[in-house]
Amino acid sequence: MHPKVDLYIDDLPEHLAEVATAIRNYLFHNVAGIEERYSFKLPFYHYYGMFCYINKVNSGLELCFCRGKDLSVAFPQLEQKERKLIAGITLHSKKDIREKEIFQLLEAGAAWNKECFMMGTPLVNKKRSKK
Question: At the top level of CATH, which class does the domain 3-116 belong to?
């Protein structure tokens, strides 16, 4: 566990801190080898590359998946908004975790991240410029 993530969660309103803690605990107990980092002033989770992060938004906590675009067909509750690859879901309380199938989403997302890594699929395709 990363100390800056502890501080991030401690600064959240209590109902959102409960959501963040539940997600964090699930990841550490169910995704072997998950790594917690503090990047871009947000809690990030790495599993075979950048996997997901949590971000406080207006009225809730958004759980975002770095390969979320790929997951949105199987999990239509994910919103891509104006983002190219990332898709997320906003949670307002701990009961949203069950109602919006967050643990199933985390499990599927982790499996997809691992599969992409094993296939050598980069998160972002870098286009080469022609000279």
Answer: alpha beta
